[in-house]
């Protein structure tokens, strides 16, 4: 009875629905946090999720957060997250992780350390599905970007390991790839242009 009452309070404080399914799932989470086993099995929660011990924040948090905050401050948040993810099968959890990873801003970018002609310092050229980015390695700021539609052609001199990019507006970039073979940059450009 306490678990149902606490579950109702949790759902109401978050503005959640007090439907029977959500209340039952939240009550199971409260019972799991208390370490109490129920007599009947809940078909919505897999047995492997109920047998899992409560998380130890010291094992899940990096040391810098352990010094900054006390583990008790994170325990309730970790239990809530574990309850949300704990009902998923391992395959569903991996799929959710991949979906979140794909939503990150730098997803799909191939980074190459290059030296542009006329400059004496190394820079980063990022090749993405729709654009090329010139990035300053010291700050990580994008100094210049070009759409793939701006790229007319590119040429690789295999003997000198030089790559030339011809862009709109009579812009020609000469560069030398330092972090990989120019063949890798050539394949990234060709692959993204063929797919786009």
UniProtKB/TrEMBL annotation:
It holds the Pfam family FERM_M. GO terms for cellular component: cell-substrate junction. It comes from the Eukaryota. GO terms for biological process: cell-matrix adhesion; integrin activation; integrin-mediated signaling pathway; leukocyte cell-cell adhesion; platelet aggregation; regulation of cell-cell adhesion mediated by integrin. Residues 38-57 are annotated as: Disordered. One of its GO terms (molecular function) is integrin binding. Residues 54-112 form the FERM central domain. PANTHER family: FERMITIN 2-RELATED, FERMITIN FAMILY HOMOLOG 3. This is URP2 protein. It comes from Furnarius figulus. The gene is Fermt3.
